[in-house]
Amino acid sequence: MAERSKALRSGRSPLLWAWVLGVKCQIKVTDEAEIINKLASYVEKISNDAILNRGKFFIGLSGGSVVKYLCEGLPKVNTDWSKWVLAFCDERVVPENSEDSTFGTYEKQLIPKTNLSRKQFIVLKQGVSAEEAAKDYTEQLKSAFNSDNFKFDLLLLGMGPDGHTCSLFPNHPLLKESTLQVASITDSPKPPPERITLTYPVINNARNCIFAISGAGKADMVKRILKDNEDLPAARVQPQGSLYWILDEAAAANL
């Protein structure tokens, strides 16, 4: 423990391992500025491998602090942007011009910095209920993947201080959803209440999942998941492929 603490203070980025509900995952401890660079590096490698091997790159984006990391880091990525297909791990059922719209944020902050276009994003249908939006999003994904099997190359995930990820909240019935691939939620504990979200059958079918987490406000939950192995929503992310947690020093303080 003393050696790892020294590494944190010296600014190095030790690679650790943890078992999360029986799944081995990599934990990268770094500072917030380096999170942006590390995340961009992972995305570049995974995207180029996907394009080389399968002709397209399917990525799921999240909101919150992940937006900042991606909007600053992705413009540095050397990739064939025309091969990207971008969806959302969850989305708020709000107008696209709302400050709460995850797509709206990426449209303003990411698209102008890259060669991405709006048509490459799978966006929420406007003017319908959360349930209808979830059904429509499922159909859009079926069309994009040309299959009922939604296998993302990469899901970029955040985590709330309560341990939620996507719009999968502690003790919520959606944690047990095994049939729907995209579900609606109308009672989100975090506003706005109406959202759609990928469910675990899709999340855990991904080739790669990366959590990018920073701040002292997440430290207790990071410990409860990565050290104490508590069964919280973020801990249930157990993809068939690789799982990475990229943390800054503050978020990793209790490990």
From TrEMBL:
It catalyses: 6-phospho-D-glucono-1,5-lactone + H2O = 6-phospho-D-gluconate + H(+). One of its GO terms (molecular function) is 6-phosphogluconolactonase activity. The keyword Hydrolase applies. It comes from Danaus chrysippus. Its EC number is 3.1.1.31. InterPro entries: 6-phosphogluconolactonase_DevB (IPR005900), 6PGL (IPR039104), Glc/Gal-6P_isomerase (IPR006148), NagB/RpiA_transferase-like (IPR037171). Hydrolysis of 6-phosphogluconolactone to 6-phosphogluconate. Belongs to the glucosamine/galactosamine-6-phosphate isomerase family. 6-phosphogluconolactonase subfamily. Keywords: Hydrolase. This is 6-phosphogluconolactonase.
